[in-house]
Specification:
alpha+beta, Pnp Oxidase, Chain A, 4 helices
Length: 132
């Protein structure tokens, strides 16, 4: 079994993360997103009005797994807990994404800021939960 710090490092170093949130009826909804390491957690960034944010507001329990850009899982899913970040935390995640993904992320963030404004996107901090 992989230790939590090693798993966190592996997931944070990956190109994409498959974040699975849950509908009210328990149906899992997997979504591939860019991922960065954010201290002892993972950071992702997404539109504020996206379905995954609505689901996280209702239920912060998620699973995460490394994946391809198209969402094909590349490893086992690990349990986690998602926390929606304030504007300062969201800015930190944007900056980390731009540092990791370079020009593509800078263009994506700029386009998003033009289309949606600063409040149109939100950072999400995902902490892995210990497995028994």
């Amino acid at each position: 079994m992989t230790s939590e710090p090693a798993a966190l490092q592996h997931l944070g170093d990956g190109q994409c993360l498959l974040v699975t949130t849950y509908r009210r009826n328990g149906t899992p909804v997997p979504t591939p997103v860019w991922v960065v390491r954010d201290g002892a957690a993972l950071g992702v960034w997404t539109p504020t009005k996206s379905g995954k944010i609505k689901r996280v507001r209702r239920n912060p329990v998620v699973t995460v797994a490394p994946c391809t850009f198209r969402g094909a899982a590349l490893g086992d899913a690990l349990p986690g807990r998602a926390e929606l970040l304030d504007q300062l935390g969201t800015g930190r995640v944007r900056h980390l994404l731009q540092a990791k993904y370079g020009l593509l992320a800078r263009l994506t963030v700029l386009g998003s800021l033009v289309r949606r404004g600063r409040d149109g996107t939100i950072g999400v901090r995902i902490t892995l939960t210990p497995q028994n």
